[in-house]
């Protein structure tokens, strides 16, 4: 019951438009006629078996070219394929993509150890050059002025132990100041510089990087000895964490300030940190020698420069004290004031190896026979003591040489000239006496 019809070419079509019948024979005939036409065009007329043989030979040549091209592609991918009469199947694990270790390193041996042949502390690959990060003492430590047993006995008494942190800006002289303290506890001799810098990079860069503790036995002004743990802190702002850790451990902090540079921003931050940690402060005005050698200031100008530096420190302490809202033990909001007459300010030149307070300077002044009041006819009961003289060496006080007293009034020019003339007469009289004694000895 199918509806059949013919197209315009006479082909029988079904109801869906498909050609009914086998057209393979017609296609084969058309292909054969096209091949014969091509052969007649290239090789002249003729056909038959000879032409068909040439077509087969060309097809075989194309197949051989395709086979050779496939082998080249396989060799480019690094796959080893054995092509025989039949194509062999090569598994994935049998393919060789890279060269083996024996081919790359001929003659090398691979050793496998079941147990570790070296300890864990020793690296598997040792460095060619061993780097040293710390400098150790090659020689024995310098001989101390005290016995080790005495220092160990002080360790058993917590009331005489003090933990002091040296803080300050970069290149203010903290490490050199530690050298002065350590040198004062040893016998006379050569003392190594930068004793607290124990790292190699610290000595190469000439700056402290890590905090270094140093235990010393130091006496006070009355001769009582204390066990002082000095903490030398770095002065660079990048190592402020070392300073914060030392301030947490310290009982007191010593602020080292360059007398020429004065207070810096980093010094203000250190004062703020010390007040927050409730640590007592002391001041060391360092590099006083620069006022004399570099700036070449007269004594009056050098004195005013030192006073200005101390006033700067007290101003910063007062500001940080009020901003933090801290109160002392007596519940007084007044900020502490650093005063040389109170003994909490030192004047030092760490490079030249000296440090003094007003009291130590007064004691050295009075001990000298040239300036001893006994030589001036004063009575023993009225002799000036070192603490009394220290209070008069600071502030708006002037010494009158003619009367031998201190007063707030500045001596006049006439009195100064009269005192200088008296001093000259005394020198001449002493010289005459020396000459007379020399002549008398020569005559005898």
Overview of this structure, please?
By secondary structure, this protein is of the alpha/beta class. 40% of the residues lie in helices and 13% in strands. The protein has helices at residues 24-43, 49-76, 101-104, 148-155, 174-184, 200-205, 240-249, 265-276, 289-293, 299-324, 358-367, 386-391, 413-443, and strands at 5-6, 12-13, 161-168, 212-219, 225-232, 252-258, 280-286, 345-349, 354-356, 398-400, 405-407. The longest helix is centred in the last third of the chain and has 31 residues, at 413-443. The N and C termini lie far apart (177 Å). Mean pLDDT is 78; it is low at 44-57, 73-83 and 376-382.
Compile the SSE list and pairings.
Blueprint: E1 5-6, E2 12-13, H1 24-43, H2 49-76, H3 101-104, H4 148-155, E3 161-168, H5 174-184, H6 200-205, E4 212-219, E5 225-232, H7 240-249, E6 252-258, H8 265-276, E7 280-286, H9 289-293, H10 299-324, E8 345-349, E9 354-356, H11 358-367, H12 386-391, E10 398-400, E11 405-407, H13 413-443
Parallel strand pairs: 3-5, 3-6, 6-7, 7-8
Antiparallel strand pairs: 1-2, 4-5, 8-9, 10-11
Helix pairs in contact: 8-10
Briefly, what is this?
The protein has 444 residues and is an alpha/beta fold. It has 13 helices and eleven strands.
Give the low-pLDDT segments. Answer: 44-57, 73-83, 376-382
Indicate the proportion of strand residues.
Answer: 5-15%
Radius of gyration: 51 Å
Broad shape: elongated
Largest sheet: 7 strands, mixed
State the distance separating the first and last CA atoms.
177 Å
SSE run: EEHHHHEHHEEHEHEHHEEHHEEH
- Please give the count of helices: 13
How confident overall, as mean pLDDT?
78
Helix content: 25-40%
